[in-house]
Amino acid sequence: MADRVHPKNSPPQSNDAQTSPPHEAAVTTKPSSPAATYVVRIPKDQVYRVPPPENAHHYANYTRRKYRRSRCCCCLCWFISIVFSLVVLLAIAAGVFYFVFRPKAPDYAIERVAVKGMNLTSPSFTAALSPEFDVTVRADNGNSKIGIYYEDGSSVEMFYNDARLCDGSLPVFYQPSNNVTMFEMVLRGNDIALTASDQTALVNDVAKRSVPLTLKLRAPVKIKVGSVKTWKITVSIDCDVTVDQLTAKARVVNKDCRYRLALW
Fold it and tell me: The whole model's pTM is what?
């Protein structure tokens, strides 16, 4: 409730001023009363809840922004919580899978290389070659509970330095767990032209009985765990192999294979 403050009474006028004779020249002016003062008290909660009309739209914009920020923060917290929970669950599942199945990468090695159509003394060597490589690869699947399906669509290439000599594909087969499989590939090349530097280097390597070759194999596979098969996974195998000659009786003198797996 507002309190009203009443103005004070004017001070009483002097009797001398009332009884002054009319012949006196001095005139006394009556003092003016002070302006009335009012104090209005408004409850504090009403001040915050009911803004002035000229600031009403500012207040509405502020409250809307504050509400949107609070909703965004709430949604972000929920999203982070869900992602964290999924990561934890995936980590637990991966740990259980590893301790139950103990997966490990298969081991690959080149066992034999037989070469045809690489007569370095014939006139065709300086023009174009049509070589044929018969390659035998040893695949060792040492997993006790995991099988491997080698699917169609693979590619195999044989290189000397950066020159591709021939290509082919991997046979389609299934390799069970705890199994060693020897598979053969026939790689062919048509009208392969080597540069002059590659021709000279190849002749020198054959003379030294040490011809370095590179085998690049890419194969789509599916992993079988129990009765469940995965989606197609790409296996990449790069093998550095050295043979003593480029004939059907070539002997592997050095070999080294590297294995990579692309899950997607």
Answer: 0.64
